[in-house]
Amino acid sequence: MLLIRCPYCQQTLPELEFTYAGQAHVARPDAANKQISDEEWRDFLFIRTNVKGPHYERWRHAHGCGRFFNAVRDTVSDRFLITYKVEDPRPELSDLLEKSE
Amino acid sequence: MTVLTHAFTPGPLVSGGAVSVNLMAPIGRFSVRVRESGRDALGAAIGLELPTRIGARTKNGNREVICLGPDEWLLQTGAGETADITAACAAIYAATPHSLTDISAREITAKIEGPAAIDLLTIGCPRDIDQIAVGDGCRTVIDGISVILWRDGEASFRVDVWRSFAPHLLGLLQTGSAELSA
Ligand SMILES: [Zn+2]
């Protein structure tokens, strides 16, 4: 079983308490201020990177504090490089890989 | 088709040397949500401090609260105190917006005690129970069901579970207890 660190609970806890919630940092088009094309909506709604390797993704501590948070997980090894709060900035991959060496 | 759930009569479900399971009497329960700016005022209205570390608890008389998330608490009270709490919180609502939801009827509580209490919990709960400090608690999962686990002593726990899931959980605890005392 994977052990996942919840950045809100500040504890490393079993995978069964968490749910996966898709790719992180997918920004919604600013429809209030400009015309959004069908292609932009398609990209926002459906197009994902499907990374092989480190993937920025959302998780939810569903059977715990209930919070969504972000993580970088290697989709090949399932290793988590980092988990961070939704309000924290997106960490640079090069920094994470350097730290994990 | 509507099927009525159990009456959940309080009393012993499992008695034994290794572990005992008791269904506890109904109490008052509230789900509490408030922003940081209103936390102290709401705590004062309820009559205890709202702790900020997830898993931490505070108690004052019959009233006990556990921090479940960054802005979420569960409050348990005596069965007859719910109207007082609702009124006290309503009185400060204009200045301190918050959410206070009476969930007294949503959950029941089972008390699990005895030298094999931790063993019994681990049949369905993936947490390392030893990592939960005495006097703390957490929301976690037992066999797919969300529960709130209170650690009252080294070998004394309370489990709050939604009543519609309770027959499954209580059945699991009874089966597990039989295994452990065999
Ligand atoms: Zn958490």
UniProtKB/TrEMBL annotation, chain A:
| Gene3D superfamilies (alphabetical) | Folate-binding superfamily
Report the Pfam families cross-referenced here. SoxD
Name one process (GO BP) from the record: tetrahydrofolate metabolic process
Molecular function (Gene Ontology), one example? sarcosine oxidase activity
Q: What is this protein called?
A: Sarcosine oxidase subunit delta
Q: Which organism is it from?
A: Thalassospira profundimaris
TrEMBL record, chain B:
Q: Name one Pfam family in it.
A: SoxG
Against Gene3D superfamilies, the record matches this protein to: Heterotetrameric sarcosine oxidase, Probable tRNA modification gtpase trme, domain 1
Question: What is this protein called in UniProt?
Answer: Sarcosine oxidase subunit gamma
* InterPro entries found in the cross-reference section: SoxG, TrmE/GcvT-like
Native source species: Thalassospira profundimaris
